[in-house]
Amino acid sequence: MSPAPVPTDLLALLQKEGFAFVPAKLNRKFLEGFGLKDWAGFAESWNHLGLDRYMADGGHYRRRRYATYSIPCPPETGPDDRAPARPVIQPKPPQPHYQSRDYNPLNGDIERWFAPILPEISTHPALQATLQAAGALATELTPPERRPASWHAEVHQFRIEADTEGHGKPTPEGLHRDGVDFVFVLMVKRHNIREGETSITALDRETLLGSFTLTEPLDAALVNDHRVFHGVTPVEALAVGQPAYRDVLVVTLRHE
Description:
18% of the residues lie in helices and 31% in strands. The protein has 5 helices and 14 strands. A hairpin with a 6-residue loop joins strand 9 and strand 10. The two termini are 24 Å apart.
């Protein structure tokens, strides 16, 4: 099966600005071109995440699962100049998540071992479609002479819960870069919360380039990690004392 085309207007926006907000309606159509199915079943898996026990601020408001994959960069053409087949995504053996303090001053410089993404979610068509789309975007945004043979993808299922006082921190490290090439954030579900605004700044961390809030399932934020900083404001419970959370899928890509 040939890969779906990447919208030229989305590529142009990312090349010009270094980031893009993609509303759910457009993103769903984009991901369906890569085989998106059973979104409801995929989203339900966020009810089965493990507690993040590595929060240096002592918080117990973040749950997550984590896995890594290899996404081959397809050749520009296939045999006989036909369109290349969709690349086969390979899961990698379990490994820790690691960031230096240069990129994560709160939780950096340690190996963090998280609960793995469940096997049935690893092969789920919604995750596979997201990885295919992310790989296609990253490949198109990278000049041919600099494209790697494959992308190293790190996948995070996040749930940020509002605490007993009604607050939760999607990015407790503040404005940051992830130390990768590209970052893709996909809204899965918001329940009983407000706020959680995404801010994008220039590399000086002061010049605001854009802001938006992921509100609908499949709303997405796409970021060139070399060009901008990003962060998300704390979320607040609408009804304190009731379950309140923000579920997102984060995929980062870097050269293998």
